[in-house]
Please model this.
Amino acid sequence: MYFLVHFCIKVLTNPKKILIIVQRSNGDVFLSLNLITELYNYYNHPQIDILVNDDTLSLAKLLPYVANIHTFSYAKKRDSRLTQEAKLVKSIFRNYDLSVNLTASDRSVFYAVLASKKSISAVEKKNNKSWWKKIFLYKYYYFDKDKHIFLNNLEPLNLLNISYDNHLQSIKVSKKIIEKVKKKIHKIGIKEFFIFHPSAQYSYKIYPQHLRDELLNYLSNIGVPIIVTGTNNKIDFDIKLNLPSLPNIIDFIGETSLEEYFALSSLAKAYIGMDTLNMHIASSQNKRIFAIFGPTKLNIWSPWSNELKGAATKNQSIQEYGNITIFQADMSCVACGNAGCDNNHGKSDCLDNISPKLVFNEIESWYQKKFL
Model:
């Protein structure tokens, strides 16, 4: 009996292979960085693999300490579901000493249980959804919708009795990439600048064009270059096509890789823009942040302040904490947490009710105090 107990403890406390499962958006994958780092250091550099959705692959490739990446594709799910599932299950089945799943979805819990006998996962608080998960998982925790995603993602460490610091870490990029980005901006005469990131992964989070143009008009006169950033996807490309030509507004949409964006963000004086991955990157780099929020719930997704070791919890039209200012509409429905007013990725009326002049006034006031 002593040998069996000792063996189980050894397997748990000294895993050689760990699988982290994050089947959500880019922000979730980025905010798993602290968990990965703590596990890597505590267990003396084990092999850590990660399972993500394929639309977050480019970010997953930048995470430190990750040896292999498994991907799940929702597009393939529609076309060849059984083939994809069989291939993925075969690649992870009992291949790990420990699996840690950060979402409570049925599929991700299923993968965690199959990957290792020592499986830890978030589960729903409602027992009618989570009862079977509690049976098959080695350990579980309740995903708390009133707690920041960063703290939720650290809960597995509590179950493993691993101490940690809740200082949001950032992904480090090479000196070569930093120098490349510096050369690019210096070539056009830019030394100090702000980032304006108008896009997001989902259109219901994006500030309407007429208000965005008004804000850019104000920002063009602030006295510092504003670099507008984005990727090559359709949402960003549409913004690029409609970007107004203004003094001090520099279009970088589609001109940086994700790794180069990390470098660009590290060089910026401030982040202005939407509730999206780029905001969390700025947060991890301790940048001054001016974030425009629509229906997203602040208690889960507001920018994390390393200065205060916390984030926003209450809805207000303007609020400042540490190095962060958040703007929301003054409406009784804010923040609903839905994917647009129709909860189907449609329009978010709350974003139409955030004044560009109000946003600019806060930015200008900070700039004058800080730099003039």
The CA atoms of residues 141 and 211 lie 42 Å apart.
